């Protein structure tokens, strides 16, 4: 302090000079931040900072804000200093090509669960390595008996708890329990037990959403993530919610590896030779070049990405069917005319039913389970997007919620539920709509579990529609206004209540 004279550092520069240098450096920094994407329209602060995007994600309504920005600024919008969002499906093949060379952006690094020992765990969906993709079984029908087992449990519980008692059912929660228990059964031959208990006993579903809620804002500023969350100092004081799931997954794998090495049947596993874990371990044994973390990554991906997503599409489709009874009746008519098996329709019977397919496509379009831009990094040489040049290194992506509502593609009524938009006689228009929908991603990194997901969805919806009376006012939404959604990259939907009545064909009641 003694060497400091007001306005001047002893023998050095004045405070004013330091201030001026700081200001010049700041202006240079702002100029360099603004310059590369200066021609792309967008909100003012997005030219200089990502903090605005963080706030949008934290609000839980980023999908609506992205939509508003596109309505205001057009199909190609600068949402951050180095981030461009695109709303026109015409750009899908350029941003998400089948060939390698347009890798996932840093967005995905923030979605990794962290442990002190293993660092940030790469999962199948969040690795940026374009070669690391697992081989899912090509035939999905071998998983059908597993879905039927879980449907049987769902039926038993809905009948006992709601049909017999007349109590109000949180149908949204029960659909979620179904989706999780199916994925548990397909992945490691065990139900988590949500359906048996009628609740999320260990808070697993909550923990997954907490993990997403913590990670989602960080996807917008991934460089900050390692300082705020993914380092051992922070970990010593504050565990990230992803860790609890990681622990669970590692425990399941360790149990299975032990039973395999001891030559004993896996404890409590119903289909230990047929499940996905058995397949992952088999692939790993056959291919030593596959890294040791792969089995964990595969199982964790299923737990995280394969359950919530299926639940969201079933919930959205059921919700809209109940809200628009004309479409519900049309679907029921189709199922009755096709004489699908009861109580559990078979995949063979339902997979090609046009109206069921139209309803599921519409549900998946309207409420894609992942609803922030699926970011890619522009490769060397840059990229031309709808007449805008994006330099190398730009993060570019489409938000499925916004792209799926592109009016020029899906129609002026893209905001509303209209399964009929998917029906056409020669299939050309339907194909175009499918290729314009970003619900499952697209190109090289398209969802690998989409066919398995469809198996679950297309079996569960007819099961609910056929077994519970939906044609009269007997299964009623208690209050559509309490159905709410929160977006943390994953959508959380709550408040889908219903009353269930027996349709008369189920002899087990
Ligand atoms: C039916 C509902 C589902 C939807 C809407 C959905 C959607 C998605 C999306 C949007 C992605 C990421 C694409 C990207 O980041 O660009 C993805 C990736 C993935 N999904 Fe799904 N998914 C669903 C079901 C499933 C199921 C049931 C499984 C597992 C059996 C699964 C496994 C995967 C895997 C492994 C990836 C990573 C693919 C890669 O990065 O190469 N998904 N999914």
Automatic annotation (TrEMBL):
Pathway: Secondary metabolite biosynthesis. The chain crosses the membrane at residues 12-31. The keyword Heme applies. PROSITE patterns: CYTOCHROME_P450. This is Cytochrome P450. Its cofactor is heme. Gene3D superfamilies: Cytochrome P450. InterPro entries: Cyt_P450 (IPR001128), Cyt_P450_CS (IPR017972), Cyt_P450_E_grp-IV (IPR002403), Cyt_P450_sf (IPR036396), Cytochrome_P450_monoxygenase (IPR050121). The keyword Metal-binding applies. SUPFAM superfamilies: Cytochrome P450. Belongs to the cytochrome P450 family. It comes from the Eukaryota. GO terms for molecular function: heme binding; iron ion binding; monooxygenase activity; oxidoreductase activity, acting on paired donors, with incorporation or reduction of molecular oxygen. Keywords: Heme, Iron, Membrane, Metal-binding, Monooxygenase, Oxidoreductase, Transmembrane, Transmembrane helix. Heme binds at residue 447.
């Amino acid at each position: 302090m003694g060497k400091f004279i007001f306005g001047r550092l002893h023998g050095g520069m004045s405070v004013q000079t330091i201030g001026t240098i700081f200001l010049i450096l700041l202006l240079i920094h702002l100029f360099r931040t603004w310059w590369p994407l200066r021609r792309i329209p967008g909100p003012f602060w997005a030219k200089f900072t990502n903090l605005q995007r963080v706030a949008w994600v934290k609000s839980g309504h980023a999908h609506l804000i992205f939509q508003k920005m596109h309505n205001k600024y057009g199909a190609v919008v600068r949402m951050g200093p180095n981030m461009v969002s695109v709303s026109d499906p015409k750009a899908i093949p350029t941003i998400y090509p089948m060939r390698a060379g347009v890798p996932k952006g840093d967005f995905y690094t923030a979605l990794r669960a962290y442990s002190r020992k293993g660092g940030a765990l790469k999962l199948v969906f969040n690795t940026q390595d374009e070669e690391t993709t697992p081989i899912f079984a090509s035939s999905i029908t071998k998983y059908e008996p597993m879905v039927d087992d879980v449907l049987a449990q769902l039926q038993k519980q809905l009948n006992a708890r709601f049909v017999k008692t007349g109590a109000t059912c949180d149908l949204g929660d029960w659909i979620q329990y179904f989706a999780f228990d199916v994925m548990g059964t397909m992945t490691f031959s065990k139900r988590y037990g949500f359906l048996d208990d009628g609740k999320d006993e260990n808070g697993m579903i909550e923990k997954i959403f907490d993990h997403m809620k913590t990670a989602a804002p960080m996807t917008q500023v991934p460089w900050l993530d390692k300082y705020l969350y993914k380092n051992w100092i922070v970990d010593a004081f504050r565990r990230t919610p992803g860790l609890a799931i990681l622990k669970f997954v590692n425990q399941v794998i360790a149990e299975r590896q032990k039973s395999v090495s001891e030559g004993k049947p896996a404890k409590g596993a119903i289909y230990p030779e047929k499940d996905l874990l058995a397949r992952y371990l088999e692939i790993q044994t056959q291919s030593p070049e596959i890294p040791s973390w792969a089995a964990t990554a595969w199982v964790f991906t299923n737990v995280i990405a394969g359950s919530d997503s299926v639940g969201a599409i079933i919930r959205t489709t059921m919700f809209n069917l109940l809200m628009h009874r004309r479409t519900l009746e049309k679907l029921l008519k189709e199922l009755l005319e096709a004489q699908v098996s009861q109580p559990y329709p078979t995949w063979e019977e339902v997979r090609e039913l046009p109206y069921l397919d139209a309803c599921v496509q519409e549900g998946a379009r309207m409420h894609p389970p992942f609803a922030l831009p699926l970011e890619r990094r522009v490769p060397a040489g840059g990229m031309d997007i709808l007449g805008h040049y994006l330099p190398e290194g730009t993060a570019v992506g489409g938000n499925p919620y916004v792209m799926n509502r592109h009016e020029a593609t899906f129609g002026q009524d893209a905001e509303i539920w209209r399964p009929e938009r998917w029906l056409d006689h020669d299939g050309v228009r339907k194909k175009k709509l499918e290729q314009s929908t970003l619900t499952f991603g697209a190109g090289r990194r398209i969802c690998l579990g989409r066919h398995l997901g469809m198996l679950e969805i297309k079996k569960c919806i007819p099961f609910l529609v056929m077994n519970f009376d939906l044609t009269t006012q007997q299964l009623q939404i208690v209050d559509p206004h309490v159905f709410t959604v929160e977006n943390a990259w994953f959508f959380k939907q709550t408040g889908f209540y219903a009353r269930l009545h027996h349709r008369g064909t189920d002899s087990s009641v």
